[in-house]
Structures are given as C-alpha cells and as structure tokens.
C-alpha cells in the first residue's frame, strides 16, 4: 500500500475514506475543523517558536559576539545573521508543513542557478571583450 502524504505527516495505510489528517483521526481534534486551518495554526506556532528562539539566541550570545567584534556595526550584522538563520530554518519547516521537501527546493535552486549561469555567461564575455579594446 502506498503511503499517503497528508500535510506535514506521511501516513502509511491511509485511504481517502479515512480522516484526512491523522491528528483528527486520533480524536485529538474534531473532524469538522478543516485541514488548512490546522496547517495555518502549525505555521503560526513555528513562527512563534522561531521568534522566541531568535530572541533567546541574541540574549545568550549577544554579549559574547559584542566582545569579539570591536565595531558595533559588525556586531549588529552578525546578530542579524543569527536571527535570519533561525527564520530560514523556520521557513524550511513551514515549507515542509505544506508538503515541499528540501530535495525539491535544492533541485529547483540548482536548475535556476544553472539557467542564470548559462544566460549571464555570454554577457560577461561581451563585457570583457569591450574592456580589452
């Protein structure tokens, strides 16, 4: 029997006549609540956890980072990078909730990068030849 992908959980043995969401099938949440609302709730929870985690990281590591860099602008940039990193991880989790896996993202980015390289390579060659003359 093929596994049925349901939101962010893969269920082996589920059929279309069963409850669409395994959490609803377990009886934790009533079946009249739509699946999309559970996904939205999961996204809000992930974003909330990412916000709390980023603030916690900044409070724990902020002073240590400030001691490493003499310039305040570098300290702010590094702390901003920490926050961005936490939210990028949260974005990957959110994409997983909606069924997009990391392999799909990597393949898309790889193909896009190859296309951009093929398109921009002749432009760079023309720019070099015009500078030489």
TrEMBL record:
Keyword Ribosomal protein recorded: no
SUPFAM superfamilies linked to this entry: Mechanosensitive channel protein MscS (YggB), transmembrane region (SSF82861)
Transmembrane domains' residue ranges: 40-61, 82-99, 105-127
GO cellular component: membrane
InterPro entries assigned to the protein according to its UniProt record, in alphabetical order: MscS_channel_TM-2 (IPR011014)
Keywords: Membrane, Transmembrane, Transmembrane helix
Full protein name: Mechanosensitive ion channel-like protein
